[in-house]
Structures are given as structure tokens and as C-alpha cells.
Amino acid sequence: MSEESMTPEAGAVATDGAAVNGAVADGAAAGAAAPAGGKAAIGDIEEAMKDVVDPELGINVVDLGLVYGVHVDDENVATLDMTLTSAACPLTDVIEDQARQALTTGPGGGLVNDIRINWVWLPPWGPDKITDEGRDQLRSLGFNV
């Protein structure tokens, strides 16, 4: 099988973690699990990541432009290249936990077997990375973007 990926930007620190076993969480992504022995589609992973919400802004990480790249290996492990609005953000653990929940749990065990997050600092995040939908959500919260 060939590896599937969305081209990532420069990466920095990799964070590995074990898959979470347990019940489906409220708000888990509604998507089919990868077929037995198969790999999750990048589009399905990106859609599931919309359930991961920045704890400070209340907007999902995809629409904020915090997901720079997605790669799925032959063992159905997703590596996410992500950034934060600030390198000093103390909430990386919260975002990692939400990402793991969104991608590794659900019907049939989740979309992927495990995740890794590469925290990426170059190029730096800026408001230009926010999607139109993200801008609409921020405006509805009173932000001027």
C-alpha cells in the first residue's frame, strides 16, 4: 500500500501517545472507521478534527488553520502537523487529548489506530490561515477578523 499524506510544513517536536480504549465520547466524529487492514482517508481525518476545539477561542482547530498537514502510515497511525496561535500556549495537552478522542474512538474503534502530533512553529500561525467558516464563527463571537 502507498502512504497517503497532505504535504506538511516544517515540523518540530513529535508527541506520541497510546490509543485510548473505551466508550464513544459525546461529540465524537461521525465517520466510518477505516476498513480492517486499511487506512483512514485524509478528508475523513480532517473532518473528524473539526470536533477538536481550541479551548480559548471555542473554534475548531481546522477552521482556525492550526492543522498544517496530515499523514497516515501503513499501520493506520495518523501524524498531524499542527501549530498553535502562540508557542507559549499551555493547552497542548487538552488539544492532544481531544484529537486522540476524535480520531481513535468511535464505532469500530475510530478512524485511526493511534495519533502523533508534530508541533510546528514555522511558518508561524497568523490570521491569514483562518478559513472563511472560522472567520464567520469568530465574528459571531465578537472578534473583528
The shape, in one word, is globular
Contiguous low-pLDDT stretches (5 residues minimum) are 1-32
Question: In what order do the strands lie side by side in the largest sheet?
Answer: 1-3-4-5-2
Strand content: 15-25%
The structure class reads alpha+beta
Averaged pLDDT, please? 80
Question: What radius of gyration results from the CA coordinates?
Answer: 15 Å
Termini separation comes to: 43 Å
Note the main sheet: 5 strands, mixed
Q: Helix coverage percent of residues?
A: 10-25%
Please provide the count of β strands. Answer: 5
Number of helices: 3
Q: What order do the SSEs take from the amino end to the carboxyl end, as H and E?
A: EEHEEHEH
Write up this protein.
- The protein has 145 residues and is α+β, with helices and mostly antiparallel strands.
- Helix content is 20%, strand content 17%.
- It contains three helices and five strands.
- It has a five-stranded mixed sheet with strand order 1-3-4-5-2, covered by helices on one side.
- It is globular, with a radius of gyration of 15 Å.
